[in-house]
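Supplementary Methods S3. Input chains for the assembly prediction are listed below.
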Amino acid sequence: MIEIKDLHKSYKMGTNTLHVLKGLNFTIAEGELVAIMGSSGSGKSTLLNILGMLDELDEGSYTLDGVPIKNLNETKAANYRNKFLGFVFQSFNLINYKNAMENVALPLYYQKVPRKEREERALKYLTQVGLKEWATHLPNELSGGQKQRVAIARAMAAEPKVLLADEPTGALDSTTSYEVMDLIQKINDDGNTILIVTHEEDIAHMCKRIVQLKDGIIVEDKFVEQVRASQYV
Amino acid sequence: MFSRDNWKEIFQTIQKNKLRTFLSGFTVALGILIFVVLFGFGNGLINTFDDFFGDDATNVLFVFTGRTTMPYKGYKSNRNIEFENSDLDDIEKNFPFYLDYISPRIIRQDTVKYKNESNSYSTWAVAPSHQFAEMTIMMKGRYLNELDIENKTKNAVIGRLVEQDLFGTKNSVGKYIDVGGVAYKVIGVFQDDGGDREERNIFIPYTTKQLLDKNTDKIDAIVLGFKPELGYAGAMAFDKGVDEFLREKKYISPQDQNGIFIRNVADQLKQNQQFARVLQMIVSFVAFGTIIAGIIGISNIMVFVVKERTKELGIRKALGATPKAVIGTILLESVFITTVSGFVGMLIGIAILSSMGEKLKDFFITNPFIDTGTAVFATVLLIIFGGIAGYIPARKAARIKPIVALRDE
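Predicted structure tokens for the full assembly:
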């Protein structure tokens, strides 16, 4: 599903160049649930941004579902993001003047899905994350966990190939974190490929594979016994 | 870009961001409103000018006499110049190409009595053609005619307010009034657009006046009407010709400033029109300044709007919004708000102008108006520039990497 070869990325900081990613290689198959771990500054968020086409790579290659991702102009990148990827952010990033359903329906709007169908599909995914009753509520009327569930529903609504989550539990307390992880695991159980960036050990162990990053290189890449979040909920 | 879906999206954004919508709408509406009102006031000023100067014919020369200040051809200076009846004939003979009509004018202040009412009025001793020069409008009865001149009749044409003062609501035509001790028969009543003062005049035949003034043939002033088709250049040529002719005839030095005066209405009118045009230009300049201020205002708001929405646009881009979609969303919203509020401002402005009417006459503004073409042009101009003002920050926003936009707080 995802194939990364010799990935380099550096940032210019004034006169200095900061080499963030120093030649990463890995492959993620369909249906995997991968945690990317590392301390701050290890390059994990940069990696996720490149995978999410929010940022461009300097060197190496990136193939997503057999499509080489390179030399993208903004329009093409937008279309790929819309078709291939779903995003979940630490700070939820819901549009505050749109209610839950409208937020979930937004990627479908950019897919030019008719309004009626958009709403039906948005409701379907809200139901899946258990927030059907909250469909008409604005984000500021929801709790943190609920917001993240809306964000997950939004990411899923476009039926992406890969779900990318950047510290999805970073702004949540542990109970709520486990609820969100439970949801992510269930989505993974349905066969969706999911990538999570996290620095929390317990969250990482709820995934099936942990990729450990340190100073821009992969120091460890191992499959783990998945801890089910449902036992904590 | 113009599907119903897009509009719904835009309406929702507008509805949910009332303050922002109000601010940008208000700026635009106010800009257009002030433009329309100012421009209308400019037109009102011009209207007032036209009212002031538009009541007399413009193809007229008034020739007055004075005292010479220079000796000329053996004549001493400080000589009093007077016109006689023969001057009328001479001008008529010498300027047939230019002349439309000619009338002498002798103005005196007289006490006028009817029964117990009496008042002081200007009596103008004139020829029948004087009616054209003053654009005197007859309300009832008739004006002086050639027979009045020939027979030196004691007939008088009185102004509307003279009739009102002396006769009240009664009809004055056919009655006799006492003008400076002489009885005249009222043969007509006139009105004049020149205002109250001009409607307190009395016209009598100049020959009658001369007969009563010890049978003199002196004239105070000469009114010359020239053919309108001569235009401005012809009027100036006529002016010069008459001046030279009379100086020659009366032995006045061509350099003497005081022996003879010619008031050229066409020339004055041209100057006044130029003045009014300059006024209009100043007002238009200020008005367009307002439009430019409006454009700058809307540009500022658009920059602010885009800045405020940076994060939202980042989210939208992460969810798959193309740069075109981002620009479209912002632009359509800005153009929509500018259009609606622009036309609202324009309509309010026009409503204010039309409700004004004569209320500001004391400030020299009469019936202010703006032609629809100018108003719509200004509004469309603001919409176009509002669009451009929206486009530049929108394009910039569309180019921001989503990752940068998402980090924006």
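The radius of gyration of chain B is 34 Å. The CA atoms of residues 28 and 321 of chain B lie 29 Å apart.
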